[in-house]
Amino acid sequence: MPAPSDILSDVDIAQAYEDVRSDKSETTWLVLKYASGTPDSLKLDKTGTGDIAEMCECLGDDEAAYGYVRVTLGNDEYSERTKFAFVVWAGPNTKIMRKAKMSFQSGQVKQVLRSYAVEIQTDDKKDLEQEVVVMKLRKAMGANYDRQKSTY
Length: 152
Description:
It is built from 5 helices and 5 strands; from the N terminus they run ααββαββαβα. By secondary structure, the protein is α+β, with helices and mostly antiparallel strands. The model has no long low-confidence stretch (mean pLDDT 87). This is Actin depolymerizing protein.
């Protein structure tokens, strides 16, 4: 069984993670993908400064990837909170063996991308729409002070 440092040996991964976490950096997301020629090694594929929709543009239907994204929640500037989501992406056309290995390897990735409020495992980009992710993050936060009326 390879150690996390073996499959996550790309030195850029740690820096990108710190950039996404830092309020001083404009980087808001990162995507890790499997390096070609080394079936279990991950490399930093892309980073960006947009929202989760921008991150989703790099997730292919036949790819396995891991994403990490910063999301700012709040009703006004006084109630803004920054939360992080960890995404385990296995596109609908990802090979079965890759999906099987991901169940084990995602635990190793979590040792590096370790601080997040929610984990989203999906093969459907609809699960990664901004509103859906924000709702998952709000539920994870507990109290919800939105001004929406309750339906019960």
